[in-house]
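Predict the assembly for these three chains.
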Amino acid sequence: MTDGLLAAVGRGDPLALTVAPDGALTVASDAASAEVEIDDVARIEATIGPRWVWWSAASVAPVLEVVPVARAWDLAAVHRLVHGGWRAEPAVVWARSHGLDPDTVPVLRPPDLFDLGPAPADLVEPVGPDGHLRPEWTAGEWAATPARRARWAAAALDVAARQRDAVDSLAAIHPQALATARAESTAEVLCVELGAGGLPIDVAVAETIIGGIVGARPRSTAEADAQRAERDAAVLRHAPPGRTDLRNPAQVRSLLRRVGVEVDDTRAWRLEQLRDVHPVVEALLAWRRIERTATTYGYGWLDEHVRDGRLRGSWTGSDGAAGRMTASAGLHSMPADLRPAVVAEPGHVFVRADLGQIEPRVLAAVSGDRSLAAATRTDDMYAPVASQLGVDRPTAKVAVLGAMYGQTTGHGAQALRRLDAAYPVAMGYLRDADEAGQVGRSIRTYGGRLIRFGSTNANEVSERDARSRAAAMGRYGRNAMIQGAAAELFKRWAVTVRARLAGDGIPASIVLCLHDELLVHAPLDAAGAVAAIVADGLQQAAAGWAPDDSVRFVADLSVVPRWSDAK
DNA sequence: TCGGTCACGTA
DNA sequence: CGTACGTGACCGAG
Protein backbone atom coordinates (compact mmCIF):
# COMPACT_ATOMS: atom_id res chain seq x y z
CA MET A 1 0.00 0.00 0.00
CA THR A 2 2.72 2.43 0.93
CA ASP A 3 5.41 0.97 -1.32
CA GLY A 4 5.44 3.64 -4.03
CA LEU A 5 5.02 6.29 -1.40
CA LEU A 6 8.09 5.27 0.54
CA ALA A 7 10.29 3.99 -2.27
CA ALA A 8 12.56 7.01 -2.28
CA VAL A 9 12.20 8.02 1.36
CA GLY A 10 15.21 7.38 3.55
CA ARG A 11 16.20 8.20 7.08
CA GLY A 12 15.73 11.89 7.75
CA ASP A 13 13.94 12.57 4.46
CA PRO A 14 10.79 14.69 4.59
CA LEU A 15 7.48 12.87 4.82
CA ALA A 16 4.29 14.82 5.37
CA LEU A 17 1.63 13.77 7.84
CA THR A 18 -1.87 15.14 8.33
CA VAL A 19 -4.62 14.13 10.72
CA ALA A 20 -8.17 14.95 9.67
CA PRO A 21 -10.75 15.89 12.29
CA ASP A 22 -12.36 12.48 11.83
CA GLY A 23 -9.01 10.82 12.53
CA ALA A 24 -8.04 9.94 8.98
CA LEU A 25 -4.27 9.88 8.57
CA THR A 26 -2.58 10.89 5.35
CA VAL A 27 1.09 10.47 4.57
CA ALA A 28 2.74 12.06 1.56
CA SER A 29 6.18 11.99 0.04
CA ASP A 30 7.34 13.85 -3.05
CA ALA A 31 6.37 10.78 -5.05
CA ALA A 32 2.95 9.82 -3.76
CA SER A 33 0.53 9.83 -0.90
CA ALA A 34 -1.57 7.32 0.98
CA GLU A 35 -4.22 7.02 3.63
CA VAL A 36 -2.72 5.02 6.49
CA GLU A 37 -3.44 3.71 9.97
CA ILE A 38 -1.58 4.74 13.05
CA ASP A 39 0.25 1.41 13.11
CA ASP A 40 1.63 2.29 9.68
CA VAL A 41 3.00 5.53 11.06
CA ALA A 42 4.66 3.65 13.90
CA ARG A 43 6.13 1.16 11.42
CA ILE A 44 7.43 3.88 9.11
CA GLU A 45 8.97 5.63 12.09
CA ALA A 46 10.65 2.42 13.27
CA THR A 47 11.88 1.20 9.90
CA ILE A 48 12.67 4.38 7.99
CA GLY A 49 12.80 7.18 10.50
CA PRO A 50 11.84 10.04 8.18
CA ARG A 51 11.69 13.69 9.12
CA TRP A 52 7.97 14.15 9.61
CA VAL A 53 6.52 17.34 8.21
CA TRP A 54 3.29 18.77 9.59
CA TRP A 55 1.54 22.11 9.75
CA SER A 56 1.78 22.07 13.54
CA ALA A 57 2.41 19.47 16.19
CA ALA A 58 -1.00 20.20 17.68
CA SER A 59 -2.63 19.29 14.36
CA VAL A 60 -1.16 15.78 14.56
CA ALA A 61 -1.38 15.39 18.33
CA PRO A 62 -3.40 12.15 18.16
CA VAL A 63 -0.40 10.54 16.45
CA LEU A 64 2.26 12.14 18.64
CA GLU A 65 0.52 10.97 21.79
CA VAL A 66 0.99 7.39 20.62
CA VAL A 67 4.09 7.34 18.42
CA PRO A 68 7.26 8.86 19.92
CA VAL A 69 8.49 10.53 16.76
CA ALA A 70 12.21 11.22 16.59
CA ARG A 71 12.61 13.72 13.74
CA ALA A 72 10.29 16.53 12.82
CA TRP A 73 9.92 19.62 10.69
CA ASP A 74 7.17 21.65 12.27
CA LEU A 75 6.07 24.28 9.76
CA ALA A 76 4.65 26.58 12.43
CA ALA A 77 7.77 26.36 14.57
CA VAL A 78 10.14 26.97 11.68
CA HIS A 79 7.93 29.81 10.50
CA ARG A 80 8.22 31.48 13.90
CA LEU A 81 11.97 31.00 13.83
CA VAL A 82 12.46 32.43 10.36
CA HIS A 83 9.80 35.12 10.33
CA GLY A 84 9.25 35.91 14.00
CA GLY A 85 5.98 36.76 15.66
CA TRP A 86 3.53 34.28 17.03
CA ARG A 87 0.80 33.74 14.45
CA ALA A 88 1.61 30.57 12.54
CA GLU A 89 -1.58 29.13 11.14
CA PRO A 90 -1.29 27.48 7.71
CA ALA A 91 -2.50 30.51 5.75
CA VAL A 92 0.17 32.75 7.29
CA VAL A 93 2.89 30.13 7.03
CA TRP A 94 2.03 29.53 3.39
CA ALA A 95 1.99 33.25 2.64
CA ARG A 96 5.39 33.95 4.20
CA SER A 97 7.03 30.96 2.60
CA HIS A 98 5.74 32.14 -0.79
CA GLY A 99 6.78 35.73 -0.33
CA LEU A 100 3.22 36.96 0.10
CA ASP A 101 2.09 39.57 2.62
CA PRO A 102 0.30 37.78 5.48
CA ASP A 103 -1.94 40.81 5.85
CA THR A 104 -3.48 39.98 2.49
CA VAL A 105 -4.54 36.48 3.49
CA PRO A 106 -8.16 36.15 2.36
CA VAL A 107 -10.75 35.57 5.05
CA LEU A 108 -13.72 33.29 4.79
CA ARG A 109 -16.88 35.31 4.36
CA PRO A 110 -19.94 34.07 6.19
CA PRO A 111 -22.44 32.30 3.93
CA ASP A 112 -24.54 34.80 2.06
CA LEU A 113 -27.92 34.13 0.46
CA PHE A 114 -26.99 36.11 -2.60
CA ASP A 115 -23.43 34.90 -2.91
CA LEU A 116 -22.94 31.20 -2.88
CA GLY A 117 -19.16 31.54 -2.68
CA PRO A 118 -16.75 29.84 -5.00
CA ALA A 119 -18.10 27.17 -7.29
CA PRO A 120 -17.37 23.66 -6.02
CA ALA A 121 -15.02 23.16 -8.93
CA ASP A 122 -12.82 25.97 -7.60
CA LEU A 123 -12.34 24.16 -4.34
CA VAL A 124 -10.45 21.35 -6.02
CA GLU A 125 -7.32 23.46 -5.75
CA PRO A 126 -5.93 24.52 -2.37
CA VAL A 127 -4.42 27.67 -3.80
CA GLY A 128 -6.50 30.56 -5.10
CA PRO A 129 -5.68 32.95 -7.95
CA ASP A 130 -4.09 35.36 -5.47
CA GLY A 131 -1.52 32.71 -4.56
CA HIS A 132 -2.86 32.32 -1.04
CA LEU A 133 -4.35 29.19 0.41
CA ARG A 134 -8.09 29.29 -0.11
CA PRO A 135 -9.86 30.23 3.12
CA GLU A 136 -12.33 27.39 2.60
CA TRP A 137 -9.44 24.96 2.64
CA THR A 138 -7.81 26.34 5.74
CA ALA A 139 -11.20 26.42 7.45
CA GLY A 140 -11.51 22.67 7.08
CA GLU A 141 -12.35 21.79 3.48
CA TRP A 142 -8.85 20.31 3.16
CA ALA A 143 -10.05 17.27 5.09
CA ALA A 144 -13.20 16.61 3.06
CA THR A 145 -11.85 13.90 0.74
CA PRO A 146 -8.77 11.68 0.45
CA ALA A 147 -7.73 13.63 -2.63
CA ARG A 148 -7.87 16.94 -0.77
CA ARG A 149 -6.02 15.52 2.21
CA ALA A 150 -3.30 14.41 -0.17
CA ARG A 151 -3.11 17.90 -1.66
CA TRP A 152 -2.95 19.38 1.85
CA ALA A 153 -0.05 17.11 2.75
CA ALA A 154 1.67 17.98 -0.52
CA ALA A 155 1.25 21.66 0.27
CA ALA A 156 2.98 21.05 3.58
CA LEU A 157 5.90 19.44 1.75
CA ASP A 158 6.06 22.42 -0.58
CA VAL A 159 6.26 24.82 2.35
CA ALA A 160 8.86 22.65 4.08
CA ALA A 161 11.12 22.78 1.04
CA ARG A 162 10.82 26.56 0.85
CA GLN A 163 11.47 26.88 4.55
CA ARG A 164 14.52 24.68 4.20
CA ASP A 165 15.88 27.05 1.56
CA ALA A 166 15.22 30.02 3.82
CA VAL A 167 16.94 28.32 6.73
CA ASP A 168 19.92 27.40 4.56
CA SER A 169 20.25 31.04 3.54
CA LEU A 170 20.13 32.05 7.17
CA ALA A 171 22.95 29.67 7.92
CA ALA A 172 25.47 31.94 6.25
CA ILE A 173 25.23 34.26 9.24
CA HIS A 174 23.59 31.91 11.74
CA PRO A 175 25.33 28.54 11.36
CA GLN A 176 22.99 27.01 13.93
CA ALA A 177 19.84 27.88 12.00
CA LEU A 178 19.18 24.39 10.61
CA ALA A 179 19.87 22.71 13.93
CA THR A 180 17.65 25.26 15.62
CA ALA A 181 14.83 24.60 13.17
CA ARG A 182 15.02 20.89 13.88
CA ALA A 183 15.30 21.27 17.64
CA GLU A 184 12.42 23.73 17.75
CA SER A 185 10.37 21.25 15.73
CA THR A 186 11.16 18.40 18.09
CA ALA A 187 10.42 20.68 21.03
CA GLU A 188 6.91 20.97 19.62
CA VAL A 189 6.63 17.19 19.80
CA LEU A 190 7.79 17.37 23.38
CA CYS A 191 5.09 19.96 24.06
CA VAL A 192 2.39 17.57 22.89
CA GLU A 193 3.88 14.84 25.05
CA LEU A 194 4.10 17.15 28.07
CA GLY A 195 0.47 18.13 27.60
CA ALA A 196 -0.66 14.54 27.37
CA GLY A 197 1.55 13.14 30.11
CA GLY A 198 1.27 15.84 32.72
CA LEU A 199 3.16 16.49 35.92
CA PRO A 200 2.76 13.91 38.71
CA ILE A 201 0.86 15.42 41.63
CA ASP A 202 -0.08 13.89 44.97
CA VAL A 203 -3.56 15.33 45.30
CA ALA A 204 -3.84 14.54 49.00
CA VAL A 205 -0.65 16.46 49.72
CA ALA A 206 -1.83 19.33 47.56
CA GLU A 207 -5.16 19.47 49.40
CA THR A 208 -3.35 19.52 52.74
CA ILE A 209 -1.13 22.41 51.64
CA ILE A 210 -4.01 24.39 50.22
CA GLY A 211 -6.10 23.65 53.32
CA GLY A 212 -3.32 25.01 55.51
CA ILE A 213 -3.44 28.30 53.64
CA VAL A 214 -7.09 28.91 52.81
CA GLY A 215 -8.91 26.49 55.12
CA ALA A 216 -10.90 23.34 54.53
CA ARG A 217 -12.50 22.70 51.16
CA PRO A 218 -15.91 24.39 51.18
CA ARG A 219 -18.77 21.97 50.66
CA SER A 220 -21.18 24.50 49.21
CA THR A 221 -21.15 27.90 47.59
CA ALA A 222 -22.60 29.29 50.82
CA GLU A 223 -19.64 27.92 52.72
CA ALA A 224 -17.27 29.32 50.13
CA ASP A 225 -18.90 32.73 50.45
CA ALA A 226 -18.60 32.56 54.24
CA GLN A 227 -14.90 31.71 53.97
CA ARG A 228 -14.41 34.61 51.64
CA ALA A 229 -16.21 36.99 53.96
CA GLU A 230 -14.17 35.78 56.91
CA ARG A 231 -10.94 36.39 54.99
CA ASP A 232 -12.06 39.91 54.19
CA ALA A 233 -13.14 40.58 57.78
CA ALA A 234 -9.66 39.76 59.05
CA VAL A 235 -8.37 42.76 57.11
CA LEU A 236 -11.30 45.12 57.56
CA ARG A 237 -11.11 44.67 61.34
CA HIS A 238 -8.00 46.85 61.19
CA ALA A 239 -9.58 49.43 58.93
CA PRO A 240 -11.83 52.37 59.70
CA PRO A 241 -15.53 51.66 59.27
CA GLY A 242 -16.96 51.82 55.76
CA ARG A 243 -17.29 49.37 52.92
CA THR A 244 -14.13 48.45 51.06
CA ASP A 245 -13.84 45.89 48.29
CA LEU A 246 -10.40 44.43 48.85
CA ARG A 247 -10.41 43.11 45.30
CA ASN A 248 -10.63 46.62 43.92
CA PRO A 249 -7.18 48.26 44.01
CA ALA A 250 -8.69 51.76 43.84
CA GLN A 251 -10.75 51.11 46.94
CA VAL A 252 -7.77 49.57 48.72
CA ARG A 253 -5.80 52.67 47.90
CA SER A 254 -8.45 54.91 49.39
CA LEU A 255 -8.65 52.70 52.46
CA LEU A 256 -4.91 53.08 52.91
CA ARG A 257 -5.18 56.83 52.50
CA ARG A 258 -7.75 56.95 55.29
CA VAL A 259 -5.21 55.37 57.64
CA GLY A 260 -2.51 57.75 56.54
CA VAL A 261 -0.74 55.65 53.93
CA GLU A 262 -0.25 57.35 50.57
CA VAL A 263 0.80 55.07 47.70
CA ASP A 264 0.77 55.30 43.90
CA ASP A 265 -0.27 51.69 43.66
CA THR A 266 -0.92 48.89 46.13
CA ARG A 267 1.56 46.33 44.89
CA ALA A 268 3.00 44.01 47.48
CA TRP A 269 6.62 45.11 47.14
CA ARG A 270 5.54 48.67 47.83
CA LEU A 271 3.42 47.74 50.82
CA GLU A 272 6.27 45.63 52.24
CA GLN A 273 8.07 48.87 53.15
CA LEU A 274 5.01 50.12 55.01
CA ARG A 275 4.30 47.10 57.17
CA ASP A 276 4.98 49.01 60.37
CA VAL A 277 2.98 52.11 59.52
CA HIS A 278 -0.42 50.59 60.20
CA PRO A 279 -1.60 47.07 61.11
CA VAL A 280 -3.96 46.99 58.14
CA VAL A 281 -0.96 46.79 55.80
CA GLU A 282 0.29 43.56 57.29
CA ALA A 283 -3.25 42.15 57.27
CA LEU A 284 -3.68 43.14 53.66
CA LEU A 285 -0.44 41.46 52.60
CA ALA A 286 -1.46 38.26 54.35
CA TRP A 287 -4.89 38.51 52.69
CA ARG A 288 -3.32 38.87 49.26
CA ARG A 289 -1.30 35.70 49.67
CA ILE A 290 -4.30 33.70 50.85
CA GLU A 291 -6.55 35.18 48.20
CA ARG A 292 -3.99 34.28 45.51
CA THR A 293 -3.99 30.68 46.61
CA ALA A 294 -7.75 30.57 46.94
CA THR A 295 -8.46 31.99 43.51
CA THR A 296 -5.56 30.78 41.37
CA TYR A 297 -3.92 27.78 43.05
CA GLY A 298 -6.74 26.47 45.22
CA TYR A 299 -9.24 23.65 45.10
CA GLY A 300 -10.71 24.96 41.87
CA TRP A 301 -7.30 24.79 40.24
CA LEU A 302 -6.81 21.18 41.40
CA ASP A 303 -10.28 20.20 40.22
CA GLU A 304 -9.81 21.79 36.85
CA HIS A 305 -6.29 20.72 35.95
CA VAL A 306 -5.45 17.55 37.89
CA ARG A 307 -6.77 14.23 36.68
CA ASP A 308 -5.44 10.76 37.49
CA GLY A 309 -2.71 12.31 39.59
CA ARG A 310 -1.33 14.45 36.79
CA LEU A 311 -1.40 18.21 36.42
CA ARG A 312 -1.96 18.90 32.75
CA GLY A 313 -1.72 22.09 30.80
CA SER A 314 -1.20 23.01 27.20
CA TRP A 315 2.32 23.77 26.10
CA THR A 316 3.77 25.92 23.37
CA GLY A 317 7.33 25.52 22.18
CA SER A 318 7.93 29.19 21.67
CA ASP A 319 6.36 32.37 22.98
CA GLY A 320 5.89 35.38 20.74
CA ALA A 321 8.97 37.19 21.99
CA ALA A 322 12.31 35.49 22.50
CA GLY A 323 11.22 31.90 22.02
CA ARG A 324 10.81 30.45 25.47
CA MET A 325 8.39 27.62 26.11
CA THR A 326 5.09 28.48 27.75
CA ALA A 327 2.63 26.37 29.69
CA SER A 328 -0.87 26.91 30.99
CA ALA A 329 -2.57 25.53 34.09
CA GLY A 330 -0.06 27.33 36.28
CA LEU A 331 2.71 24.88 35.36
CA HIS A 332 5.25 27.69 35.03
CA SER A 333 4.14 29.71 38.01
CA MET A 334 3.30 27.15 40.65
CA PRO A 335 4.06 28.73 44.04
CA ALA A 336 7.01 27.20 45.86
CA ASP A 337 4.63 26.39 48.73
CA LEU A 338 2.84 23.88 46.54
CA ARG A 339 5.89 22.10 45.17
CA PRO A 340 5.95 19.46 47.90
CA ALA A 341 2.82 18.13 46.19
CA VAL A 342 4.81 17.31 43.06
CA VAL A 343 5.66 13.71 43.99
CA ALA A 344 7.04 10.93 41.84
CA GLU A 345 4.80 7.91 41.43
CA PRO A 346 5.51 4.73 43.42
CA GLY A 347 8.72 3.10 42.25
CA HIS A 348 9.78 6.33 40.54
CA VAL A 349 11.91 9.38 41.25
CA PHE A 350 12.50 12.73 39.67
CA VAL A 351 15.80 13.48 38.03
CA ARG A 352 15.91 17.22 38.25
CA ALA A 353 18.51 19.54 36.81
CA ASP A 354 18.79 23.25 36.29
CA LEU A 355 21.33 25.23 34.33
CA GLY A 356 23.66 27.30 36.47
CA GLN A 357 24.14 30.98 35.60
CA ILE A 358 22.80 30.22 32.16
CA GLU A 359 22.34 33.76 30.92
CA PRO A 360 25.87 35.13 31.46
CA ARG A 361 27.29 31.87 30.09
CA VAL A 362 25.08 32.18 27.03
CA LEU A 363 26.21 35.78 26.64
CA ALA A 364 29.82 34.64 26.64
CA ALA A 365 29.06 32.01 24.00
CA VAL A 366 26.93 34.01 21.57
CA SER A 367 29.03 37.16 21.73
CA GLY A 368 32.32 35.29 21.39
CA ASP A 369 33.90 37.28 24.24
CA ARG A 370 37.08 35.34 25.10
CA SER A 371 37.54 36.99 28.47
CA LEU A 372 34.00 36.32 29.60
CA ALA A 373 34.31 32.79 28.25
CA ALA A 374 37.38 32.31 30.41
CA ALA A 375 35.29 33.23 33.44
CA THR A 376 32.83 30.43 32.66
CA ARG A 377 35.49 27.82 33.41
CA THR A 378 34.61 28.16 37.08
CA ASP A 379 31.43 26.89 38.71
CA ASP A 380 30.67 30.41 39.91
CA MET A 381 31.61 32.72 37.08
CA TYR A 382 30.79 35.85 39.06
CA ALA A 383 33.88 35.24 41.22
CA PRO A 384 36.44 35.70 38.42
CA VAL A 385 34.35 38.52 36.96
CA ALA A 386 34.43 40.25 40.36
CA SER A 387 38.20 40.03 40.66
CA GLN A 388 38.57 41.15 37.05
CA LEU A 389 36.48 44.23 37.79
CA GLY A 390 38.02 44.81 41.18
CA VAL A 391 34.64 44.73 42.95
CA ASP A 392 32.94 42.29 45.29
CA ARG A 393 30.90 39.39 43.96
CA PRO A 394 27.42 40.86 44.60
CA THR A 395 28.40 44.02 42.76
CA ALA A 396 29.79 42.02 39.83
CA LYS A 397 26.64 39.96 39.61
CA VAL A 398 24.36 42.99 39.65
CA ALA A 399 26.52 44.67 37.01
CA VAL A 400 26.45 41.69 34.65
CA LEU A 401 22.72 41.16 35.08
CA GLY A 402 22.15 44.88 34.72
CA ALA A 403 24.02 44.90 31.43
CA MET A 404 21.97 42.01 30.11
CA TYR A 405 18.65 43.41 31.26
CA GLY A 406 19.33 47.06 30.53
CA GLN A 407 19.14 48.23 34.12
CA THR A 408 19.20 51.98 34.24
CA THR A 409 18.73 52.76 37.92
CA GLY A 410 20.82 51.92 40.95
CA HIS A 411 24.46 52.66 41.58
CA GLY A 412 25.97 50.12 39.21
CA ALA A 413 27.22 52.78 36.83
CA GLN A 414 30.81 52.53 38.00
CA ALA A 415 30.86 48.74 37.72
CA LEU A 416 29.15 48.97 34.36
CA ARG A 417 31.98 51.10 32.98
CA ARG A 418 34.54 48.60 34.22
CA LEU A 419 32.47 45.84 32.62
CA ASP A 420 32.76 47.67 29.32
CA ALA A 421 36.52 47.77 29.65
CA ALA A 422 36.92 44.16 30.75
CA TYR A 423 34.43 42.53 28.38
CA PRO A 424 34.13 44.84 25.37
CA VAL A 425 32.95 42.12 22.99
CA ALA A 426 30.09 40.95 25.19
CA MET A 427 29.07 44.47 26.09
CA GLY A 428 29.21 45.51 22.45
CA TYR A 429 26.93 42.61 21.55
CA LEU A 430 24.40 43.80 24.10
CA ARG A 431 24.71 47.42 23.01
CA ASP A 432 24.05 46.45 19.39
CA ALA A 433 20.87 44.66 20.47
CA ASP A 434 19.87 47.69 22.52
CA GLU A 435 20.37 50.05 19.59
CA ALA A 436 18.47 47.78 17.22
CA GLY A 437 15.54 47.77 19.61
CA GLN A 438 15.62 51.52 20.05
CA VAL A 439 15.38 52.20 16.35
CA GLY A 440 12.98 49.32 15.67
CA ARG A 441 15.38 47.28 13.56
CA SER A 442 14.62 43.58 13.79
CA ILE A 443 17.40 41.28 14.93
CA ARG A 444 18.12 37.57 15.07
CA THR A 445 19.24 35.52 18.01
CA TYR A 446 22.37 33.43 17.81
CA GLY A 447 20.29 30.44 16.70
CA GLY A 448 18.58 32.51 13.99
CA ARG A 449 15.24 33.43 15.56
CA LEU A 450 13.88 36.71 14.25
CA ILE A 451 13.02 39.23 16.96
CA ARG A 452 10.55 41.64 15.38
CA PHE A 453 10.09 45.17 16.49
CA GLY A 454 6.79 46.68 15.53
CA SER A 455 7.05 49.98 13.66
CA THR A 456 7.64 52.66 16.25
CA ASN A 457 4.52 54.50 17.23
CA ALA A 458 4.73 57.94 15.63
CA ASN A 459 2.09 59.71 17.68
CA GLU A 460 3.79 59.71 21.06
CA VAL A 461 2.33 62.05 23.63
CA SER A 462 5.66 63.65 24.37
CA GLU A 463 9.35 63.49 23.62
CA ARG A 464 9.84 62.07 27.10
CA ASP A 465 7.29 59.37 26.31
CA ALA A 466 9.02 58.48 23.06
CA ARG A 467 12.36 58.29 24.81
CA SER A 468 11.15 55.96 27.50
CA ARG A 469 9.45 53.82 24.88
CA ALA A 470 12.70 53.61 22.93
CA ALA A 471 14.62 52.74 26.09
CA ALA A 472 12.12 49.99 26.82
CA MET A 473 12.59 48.59 23.31
CA GLY A 474 16.33 48.71 23.85
CA ARG A 475 16.03 46.69 27.05
CA TYR A 476 13.74 44.31 25.25
CA GLY A 477 16.33 43.83 22.52
CA ARG A 478 19.12 43.13 24.99
CA ASN A 479 17.00 40.69 26.91
CA ALA A 480 15.58 38.92 23.88
CA MET A 481 19.04 38.11 22.51
CA ILE A 482 20.08 36.48 25.78
CA GLN A 483 16.78 34.97 26.84
CA GLY A 484 16.19 33.74 23.31
CA ALA A 485 19.58 32.11 22.94
CA ALA A 486 19.21 30.54 26.37
CA ALA A 487 15.85 29.16 25.29
CA GLU A 488 17.45 27.68 22.18
CA LEU A 489 20.14 25.95 24.18
CA PHE A 490 17.59 24.74 26.72
CA LYS A 491 15.45 23.18 24.02
CA ARG A 492 18.48 21.54 22.43
CA TRP A 493 19.19 20.04 25.84
CA ALA A 494 15.61 18.90 26.36
CA VAL A 495 15.25 17.23 22.96
CA THR A 496 18.68 15.64 23.34
CA VAL A 497 17.62 14.11 26.64
CA ARG A 498 14.33 12.99 25.12
CA ALA A 499 16.09 11.34 22.19
CA ARG A 500 18.65 9.56 24.35
CA LEU A 501 16.02 8.24 26.74
CA ALA A 502 14.17 6.80 23.77
CA GLY A 503 17.35 5.54 22.15
CA ASP A 504 18.33 3.65 25.28
CA GLY A 505 14.82 2.31 25.73
CA ILE A 506 14.51 3.86 29.18
CA PRO A 507 10.85 4.28 30.19
CA ALA A 508 11.46 7.73 31.66
CA SER A 509 9.90 10.93 30.44
CA ILE A 510 10.37 14.64 30.72
CA VAL A 511 7.46 15.97 32.77
CA LEU A 512 8.36 19.63 33.16
CA CYS A 513 10.40 22.24 31.31
CA LEU A 514 10.86 25.42 33.28
CA HIS A 515 13.06 27.75 31.21
CA ASP A 516 16.32 26.54 32.73
CA GLU A 517 15.14 23.51 34.63
CA LEU A 518 14.34 19.99 33.47
CA LEU A 519 12.31 17.48 35.46
CA VAL A 520 12.40 13.84 34.36
CA HIS A 521 10.13 11.20 35.85
CA ALA A 522 12.07 7.94 35.97
CA PRO A 523 11.76 4.42 37.32
CA LEU A 524 13.84 4.05 40.46
CA ASP A 525 16.21 1.52 38.93
CA ALA A 526 16.87 3.75 35.94
CA ALA A 527 17.62 6.88 37.97
CA GLY A 528 21.38 6.58 37.58
CA ALA A 529 21.20 6.09 33.84
CA VAL A 530 18.77 8.98 33.48
CA ALA A 531 20.94 11.26 35.58
CA ALA A 532 23.90 10.44 33.36
CA ILE A 533 21.86 11.19 30.25
CA VAL A 534 20.65 14.51 31.65
CA ALA A 535 24.15 15.57 32.65
CA ASP A 536 25.87 14.33 29.51
CA GLY A 537 22.98 15.54 27.38
CA LEU A 538 23.81 19.09 28.40
CA GLN A 539 27.43 18.70 27.30
CA GLN A 540 26.29 17.11 24.05
CA ALA A 541 23.73 19.85 23.38
CA ALA A 542 26.15 22.62 24.27
CA ALA A 543 28.91 21.13 22.15
CA GLY A 544 26.59 21.09 19.14
CA TRP A 545 25.17 24.50 19.85
CA ALA A 546 28.02 26.72 20.95
CA PRO A 547 30.46 28.18 18.40
CA ASP A 548 33.38 26.48 20.17
CA ASP A 549 34.21 24.80 23.45
CA SER A 550 35.40 27.95 25.20
CA VAL A 551 32.29 28.32 27.32
CA ARG A 552 31.52 25.85 30.07
CA PHE A 553 27.91 25.05 30.88
CA VAL A 554 27.00 23.57 34.23
CA ALA A 555 23.90 21.92 35.63
CA ASP A 556 22.91 21.30 39.21
CA LEU A 557 21.43 17.81 39.32
CA SER A 558 19.57 15.86 41.93
CA VAL A 559 17.57 12.64 42.19
CA VAL A 560 14.60 13.15 44.48
CA PRO A 561 11.19 11.70 45.29
CA ARG A 562 9.58 15.10 45.28
CA TRP A 563 10.34 18.28 43.40
CA SER A 564 10.73 20.41 46.51
CA ASP A 565 13.48 18.13 47.85
CA ALA A 566 15.88 19.59 45.33
CA LYS A 567 17.70 22.86 45.86
C1' DT B 1 -19.47 39.97 26.34
C1' DC B 2 -15.25 42.04 25.56
C1' DG B 3 -10.54 44.47 26.13
C1' DG B 4 -7.84 47.04 29.45
C1' DT B 5 -5.80 47.47 34.09
C1' DC B 6 -4.04 45.84 38.28
C1' DA B 7 -1.94 42.38 40.74
C1' DC B 8 1.18 38.34 41.45
C1' DG B 9 3.06 33.61 40.93
C1' DT B 10 7.34 31.66 38.21
C1' DA B 11 11.95 31.82 35.30
C1' DC C 1 13.14 52.59 34.39
C1' DG C 2 15.16 44.40 33.86
C1' DT C 3 11.73 40.96 30.37
C1' DA C 4 8.71 37.26 29.69
C1' DC C 5 4.68 34.30 30.59
C1' DG C 6 -0.45 32.81 32.42
C1' DT C 7 -4.16 33.67 35.58
C1' DG C 8 -7.99 35.98 37.95
C1' DA C 9 -10.80 39.97 39.60
C1' DC C 10 -12.67 44.08 38.47
C1' DC C 11 -13.92 48.05 35.49
C1' DG C 12 -16.12 50.37 31.77
C1' DA C 13 -17.52 50.39 27.07
C1' DG C 14 -20.42 48.13 23.86
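The radius of gyration of chain A is 27 Å. Residues 271 and 281 of chain A are 7 Å apart (CA to CA).
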